[in-house]
Amino acid sequence: MSDKKVSRPCHHCKSKSASAPTDTSKIHYEKFWLYRHCSSVQLRDRQAQKAGRLFSGLLAMNVVFLGSAFISSMIFNKVAITLADVWILLSILKVLSLFWIIYYLLGTSRQPHAVLYRDSHAGAIWIRGSVLLFGSCSIFLNVFQIGYSTILVHCKSRVEIVFPSIGIIFICTQAYFLWHHSKDCIQVQHNFTRCGLMLTIATNLILWLLAVTNDTLHMEIEAELREVERGFAGKAPSSHPHWGNETALCTCPNSTICKIFQKGYILLYPFNTEYCLVCCSVLYVMWKNVGRRISDHHVPHTKPKFKLQGVVFGPLLGTSAVIIGACVFMIYQIQVTSLVPSSQVFVIYYSYYIVLLPLMSVGAVIGTIIHALEKRELDTLKNPTRSLDVVLLMGAALGQIGMSYFSIVALVATDPRDLLNSLALSYSVLLIIQNITQNVFVIDGLHRRRATPPGKEEDTKEEQNREAYIQRRLSMLELGQEIRKASLSYIHTYSHLSWKRRVLKEISFFLALCNIILWVMPTFGAHPLFENGMERSFYGYSTWFVIVNFGLPLGVFYRMHSVGGLLEVYVTA
What family does this chain come from, according to its entry (predicted)? Predict the structure, then answer.
């Protein structure tokens, strides 16, 4: 690959970065060794861009396949490939990614004409805030892992201390990089930058895959400890095929600090999976923006701001759903973690969802109908961030939809007339409908142009009326009649349009709050699909663990990503 640049004058291109120099007369066209002899510079630039994306994509694909092979070998043959071997591979990938990020921060981004453009749609504040939030939780997770492994150093490998130490440095550096450079449209060293971004994406994907498989081990440990407690309470612990004597070889001693490290590690583990997915999405947008040149009509003249105005019912209903959901979640956690959990807690949990999900579905359908009635044009401009949002919404929804279908098959095949089974069946069906309707509403809203504030139209009309009065020298009576007619016409038009915008804002805000509570509950440990035991007994212990651990992180990511999309719909309504 070659990263040679050819300078050509460009009189219509302007800088979009505050830090960029004022002289933007040079555009660094891409040049790839396969397309050196193209007659047109623009054609050669496009072909080189495609080739650079192809080769960097192949690099990421090979790295991901290598990591997947290591993790799969660790799962199916723990003697030949151990967890320490996977950690060594990931440490190497982290170090390579760190070297590239540092080179980008100190070298590439500081070159002349490196960042002439910045994508205003990329790196929204909510997603960069998510990177910081999940990154902070992941740092604490690694600290707890270091402390836990240090206490049990007599029975644990030193790699279990070195790996999280490298992880802390990697998370801090990557979070700083994404916070400051997520909007960059880099114009130099195109191929090297693409390969570096794809290497970092592949590293995060392998980390996510390892986190998903390791989360299974933690859930098994929790289930085992619960069975032991039940045994002390007088009930014989049930046998599971994955339990053995290995967990007894390295147990936490009876010390408070060790229990804190262990519980903190288990509590923060889901945040690590979300951090990896969020970083992958931001890095992918940066990869798509490499070499991108943004023209003037792609840049919004006014940046939409979040203002809580004109909405009453959406925040009220959404806040009620959050408060009730928090109460249900606390009751659920207290009951499930007790020695003798009652099936009544599952009835409460499923009943809450059965009431909330239809409300969300109806709101999404009404919002979609209003979008169809509106006369706002579709935004057809090229936008990598919006394209990625659509793909992530559709892809992440497959996690919950897939688990729901597996659950439906298991419940229908066993005893759907049982109260708990019928509630779980209704929950699964309603969850599928809610995911589909919400996706349609959000995706349709993201493709709509921003609505024009009616106040500006009123100012323009008043100014035109004033000029017409001065020119024609109308009498006061005629002027009053014209103003009255114009005011009545404006009030009629505004009232006709404002109810649609108001309803869209109410619906999007209500759905955003509902998705927040539906994100919080599974993130902090509410997993009824595993803990009720119905699907687990139908599919088997190991099979259902795989289904839940692949579907659950995607479902959590879907809820979090939906909040950002719904707030975008709220702002642009």
Answer: Belongs to the otopetrin family.
Percent of the chain as helix, strand, coil, to the nearest 5: 75, 5, 25
pLDDT of amino acid 26: 56
CA–CA gap between residue 342 and residue 350 (Å, rounded): 14
Q: Tell which phi-psi region holds residue 311, choosing left (phi > 0), alpha (psi between -120 and 50) or beta.
A: beta
Assessment of whether the complete model's pTM goes beyond 0.85: no
CA torsion 55-282-545-60 (nearest 10°) is: 10
Backbone angles phi, psi at 254, to 5 degrees: -80, 70
| Residue 362: other Cβ atoms inside 10 A | 13
Q: Specify the pLDDT at position 42.
A: 63
Closest CA to 86 of 139, 175, 160: 160
Calpha distance 513→295 (Å, rounded): 36
pLDDT score of 129: 86
What is d(CA 284, CA 201) in angstroms, rounded to the nearest whole number? 7
Map tokens 């009951």 to a residue. 335
Helix or strand or coil: residue 117?
A: strand
Write down the pLDDT at residue 292: 78
Candidates 336, 333, 79, 70; CA nearest to 213 is: 70
Structure tokens at 348: 């409460």
Longest dimension (CA), the chain: 99
Question: What is the length of the chain?
Answer: 573
Q: Taking each helix axis from N to C terminus, what angle separates 159-181 and 256-289, rounded to the nearest 10 degrees?
A: 40
Integer Cα distance of 203 and 92 in angstroms: 10
- Cα–Cα distance for residue pair 398/390, rounded to 1 Å: 13
Chain segment 277-290, per-residue pLDDT in tens: 889 989 998 898 88
Residue 305 exposed, middle or buried by CB count within 10 Å (0-12, 13-18, 19+): exposed
Which residues, in sequence order, are bridge partners of residue 30? 5
Residues in the chain with pLDDT values less than 50: 1-25, 216, 220, 224, 228, 232, 236-248, 297-298, 301, 454-463, 469-470, 473-474, 490, 492-497
Q: Which residues contact 506 (CB under 8 A, 6 or more apart)?
A: 311, 312, 313, 314
Instruction: Determine whether 200 is exposed, middle or buried from the number of CB atoms within 10 Å of its CB (0-12, 13-18, 19+).
Output: buried
Where along the chain do its domains lie?
A: 46-227+252-294, 310-450+495-572
Using DSSP's 3-state secondary structure scheme, residue 508 falls into: helix
